[in-house]
Structure formats: structure tokens, C-alpha cells
Specification:
The structure holds 2 protein chains of 2 kinds. Chain A contains 9 helices and 10 strands. By secondary structure, chain A is α/β, with parallel strands linked by helices. Chain A folds into 2 domains: 69 residues, no CATH class; 191 residues, Vaccinia Virus protein VP39 (Rossmann fold, 3-Layer(aba) Sandwich). In chain A, strands 6-2-1-7-8-10-9 form a 7-stranded mixed beta sheet. A 3-stranded antiparallel beta sheet of chain A has the order 3-5-4. The longest helix of chain A is centred in the first third of the chain and has 19 residues. The termini of chain A are far apart. Chain B has a 7-stranded parallel beta sheet with strand order 3-4-2-1-7-8-9, with helices on both faces. Chain B has 6 helices and 9 strands, in the order E-H-E-H-E-E-E-E-H-E-H-E-H-E-H. Chain B has one domain: Rossmann fold (3-Layer(aba) Sandwich), CATH 3.40.50.180. Classes of the chains: A alpha/beta, B alpha/beta. Chains A and B meet through helix 2 and helix 9 of A and strand 5, strand 6, helix 3, helix 4 and helix 5 of B.
Chain lengths: 290, 200
């Protein structure tokens, strides 16, 4: 069996002779330029992943250096839009990590029943898959009518997509399996209508969702929440920025409010660990206790 | 020996897919208790896999085996397993995770981990490609080699599945090709550094 040696296309990166100090300088200059010209602050993003995403954009634009990309982005707002998508889209799925949603249903829902009104923040909601998942879960638990879900993202394009509530039809089999393993109580297909290659979700699900643009790096808190979801968003930030965002979350949660992180994220490496207690051994669910 | 005087290696990155579990169990059981480098293992597996791989490896090793979490520090003499459904990126002194799209249908992608290791640890990196049924790891191993790191490939004739080590050997002609036992002995004989501490 012959396995083709790759042409290098799948692994965007600097040319062999590239000097890594020079590369870092170019990346810092580009991010500084983006911040000062467009106001988007990616300067404290995790270096290895932003580097990877920048090289993908270099390749996508048919360029060869980060400096060339900088010139194009500063002079061409459309190129900035494309970069913004590259840098801010968080690939996710409905009921991603079904065991997380199952645990949420079993451990957190009983706590939430004690509140007359619920404010829930999905920080960095991207295209909205997990917000719709939570709306479905709350609906099935009879809590949706006293809840308001604030779904925010830095990127207006993905928010528009989230608002439409249309997800790719070819993912529905996977999402159905996730839903069932997450403890779903109905038939998943009740929630959407198939149209061409999209699944349009029942508009009743969005009745208590507020979508709005919010930048975790530069914007402040806008309410007090009972639950904050921020799953697989902070992984793109460096440790200093993670701590700043944790400070924002800490200040935005009611006492005993719940913080939900991605399954491979941990408060262990942040300064805020002492302020929370773990609610679950297996899932990243924390409660603010001080 | 590959290492010039005074040069040590900090990090070993290992990539494998089909047949990987048996090979990895042999590899980790063969590393001495005094092994100083940080070992990062990327094994292709289903996105819903649990902690079983970590447990099975820990059973065979006296070194600490951890599944990577975001921003986990790299410590010498530890073995790290890349979690399913994320890419594991190596930064100087710690890991970062990403949910970017799969690369060649794989997440974790061996190429992504290898190339970030090459960029962060350059000539202090050892890349090891073991048994596997696709070509992931070949580009990343070349990046490690190009940055002055060391490239090791399991002899395809001794691998449970040949395509992955064959592709790696083709991509990095100067890679050292040897059976698993030879890789264990070779790694054990290399001079080790200690992963650099982070500035922050």
C-alpha cells in the first residue's frame, strides 16, 4: 500500500529557513496593527494556536510571509473579515461531550430550580450549537420559561448564523446520538425541520435567547448570572488573559453561581481556583463559594 | 550519537494510530524510572474515548502519566497523553489545546503536535513515529528534523501497521529507523535537559 507523502498543504507553517524570532516579531506587529486599526485584540492569544491560524490565513490568501498578510489585512477590510473568522470561530457541536450535559441535568438543574428567575451566559457562543442545546435541556426540564440565555461572541458574523438556528443536516445523526446520551427525553427530530441541507431549529427555542456582540478581552460584565458557560473558548487565550477573563466571570456570577468549562479545561492553572468548589468529579462544573 | 556535547533533549513527542496501544505499552514500560525528558503521546482515537488509555499506560510505567489539560505545565519525567477530540499544541513550558478542524481527518493530529513541539523546543525535541495506518506525523517529523531535532521511526517491518512509519521514513530520509526495542534503548541513552521554565 502506498501512502502519498503529503505535499505540505495540510501543515501550514513557515518556510524551512524561517527565523523564529523574526516570525514572532512579525506576528506581534500584525496583532498590534489589527488591534490599533480595527480594535480587535488578539495580542494575548495562545501563541502556538494563533500562529497556526495565521499561517493558514497566509496560505489561504496565497501569500508567503506574515508581513505580507499584515499589509493585506490593514489595507483590505474584507481580508480582516476572513482573518476574524479564522481567529474567532470555535468549532463545536450540539451536546458536545454528552456526559457533560447529562451531569448538568442531574446535578445543576436541581440547584437552578431554587431560583425564580435564571440568567445564563454563554460566553463565546460561536455559531450557537451549545446555546440551542441548553435551550432544549431547559425546555425539557420545565425551566426555560423562567430563564434568559445571553449568547455572546466577539464575531458578528457567527452571531448572525447562530440567530438563524440552522445547522448542517449531515451533523444531525451525530447530534441525535449526543442528545440521547446526554439524557434527552424526547425525539431529537421534534426540534428541527429538514430543509435542503440544513436543519432549521424550532423558533420557539430562541424566544428567551438574547444574542449580542461582546468581547471577552475588552468588554466588561453586563449583568449578574446564575450560570456562565465558557467551553473551549479560553483554550485560545494565554494564561494572563485567562486570568483576566476569570476575573470577569467571577465578578459576574452570583454567590453559588455555576461556572461551566470545557472538559479539558481546568481552574487548576488559574488564580481563581480558591474561589470555587467542584460540583462534579468528572465534568468541569464549578460553584462560586467565596 | 546524535547529540553534540552539552546538548540535551527536553521533549519526546510520539505519534501512532493503528496498533499503537500495544506499542505504547511496550514503550512506556521500557523507559527507566530515571527518565528525564517529558514525553508527549499522540494516539489517534475516537472522540468519545475516556481515560482508559492513560490508565493502561500508567499500569505499565512508574513515571507519572497524565492526560493533557489546557495550560498544563510540562514537567520532566512525566508522560502526557493528548486528549481525544482536541489538538494538543506544545508551547514553551506548557500545553495549549485547540478545537480547530481535524487535520487529515484526525483530531488530535500528530502533525499539529509535532510541528508545535518543533517550534517551541527546536533542536531539543525528539520525534518518534510508531505503527499506524495513515500518513499523519510525516510532515511534523520533518519539521522536527528541519529544526535540528531528532527523528526516530519504528522499522516498518516490525510495526503492526506499516503505512505511518513508511510515510515518516520517506518524508525524513535521515530519520533513524529501528525496531521498538531499539527506540527504547536509544531514548534511554540520550542526554536529557529539563524543560525550560516559562518566563511568565
Amino acid at each position: 500500500m502506498v501512502v502519498p507523502v503529503s505535499d505540505g498543504q495540510s501543515l501550514p507553517g513557515p518556510p524551512l529557513a524561517y527565523n523564529s524570532d523574526l516570525e514572532r516579531l512579525e506576528i506581534e506587529l500584525l496583532l498590534e496593527g489589527v488591534y490599533r486599526h480595527y480594535g480587535f485584540d488578539f495580542r494575548s492569544y495562545a501563541y502556538a494556536s494563533i500562529r497556526r491560524r495565521l499561517w493558514k490565513r497566509v496560505e489561504g490568501e496565497g501569500l508567503t510571509t506574515i508581513s505580507e498578510l499584515q499589509a493585506r489585512i490593514l489595507h483590505d477590510p474584507d481580508a480582516m473579515e476572513r482573518l476574524l473568522l479564522d481567529l474567532s470561530v470555535n468549532v463545536t457541536a450540539m451536546f458536545r461531550d454528552p456526559s457533560f450535559y447529562k451531569e448538568f441535568r442531574e446535578r445543576i438543574i436541581p440547584l437552578l430550580r431554587t431560583y425564580p428567575f435564571l440568567r445564563i451566559w454563554h460566553a463565546g457562543c460561536s455559531t450557537g450549537e451549545e446555546v440551542f442545546s441548553m435551550a432544549i435541556l431547559l425546555e425539557e426540564e420545565g425551566l426555560y420559561d423562567r430563564a434568559r440565555l445571553y449568547a455572546t461572541d466577539i464575531n458578528d458574523v457567527v452571531l448572525q448564523r447562530a440567530r438563524q438556528g440552522i445547522f448542517p443536516l449531515d451533523r444531525m445523526q451525530e447530534y441525535t446520538e449526543n442528545y440521547l446520551r446526554a439524557g434527552g427525553k424526547r425525539s431529537f427530530s421534534e426540534y428541527y425541520t429538514a430543509k435542503y441541507d440544513g436543519a432549521l431549529f424550532n423558533s420557539a427555542l430562541t424566544r428567551n435567547i438574547v444574542f449580542s456582540q461582546h468581547n471577552l478581552v475588552t468588554d466588561r460584565s453586563f449583568a449578574e448570572f446564575h450560570v456562565i458557560f465558557c467551553r473551549n473558548v479560553l483554550i485560545y487565550f494565554d494564561k494572563a488573559l485567562q486570568n483576566r477573563v476569570h476575573s470577569l466571570f467571577y465578578g459576574s456570577l452570583v454567590m453559588f453561581g455555576v461556572l461551566a468549562l470545557g472538559s479539558k479545561e481546568s481552574l487548576k492553572f488559574s488564580q481563581y481556583e480558591p474561589c470555587y468548589e467542584k460540583i462534579s468529579q468528572s465534568e468541569k462544573l464549578y460553584r462560586k463559594v467565596r | 550519537m546524535a547529540a553534540s556535547p552539552g546538548v540535551g533533549y527536553d521533549l519526546v513527542v510520539v505519534g501512532t494510530s493503528w496498533g499503537g496501544l500495544a506499542a505504547l505499552r511496550t514503550l512506556v514500560s521500557g523507559l527507566p524510572d530515571s527518565f528525564q525528558m517529558a514525553v508527549t503521546i499522540v494516539q489517534h482515537r475516537h472522540k468519545d474515548s475516556d481515560h482508559l488509555l492513560r490508565t493502561l499506560l500508567q499500569e505499565r510505567s512508574s513515571l507519572v502519566v497524565c492526560e493533557v489539560e489546557d495550560k498544563m505545565p510540562l514537567e520532566h519525567g512525566h508522560i502526557y497523553v493528548a486528549p481525544p477530540d482536541y489538538h494538543t499544541l506544545v508551547e514553551p513550558g506548557h500545553f495549549s489545546l485547540s478545537t480547530d478542524a481535524p487535520v487529515r481527518y484526525s483530531r488530535p493530529s500528530i502533525d499539529v503536535t509535532f510541528s508545535s513541539a518543533a517550534d517551541s523546543y527546536t533542536h531539543r525535541t525528539v520525534g518518534v513515529v510508531l505503527t499506524g495506518a495513515n500518513a499523519d506525523g510525516a510532515d511534523g517529523l520533518r519539521r522536527i528534523s528541519d529544526r535540528g531535532g531528532l527523528a526516530l521511526v519504528q522499522d516498518p517491518e516490525t510495526a503492526e501497521s506499516k503505512p505511518m512509519p513508511e510515510a515518516a521514513r520517506r518524508a525524513v530520509p535521515r530519520a533513524r529507523v529501528m525496531p521498538l526495542g531499539g527506540i527504547i534503548d536509544y531514548l534511554s541513552s540520550l542526554p536529557a535537559g529539563v524543560p525550560e521554565r516559562e518566563d511568565a
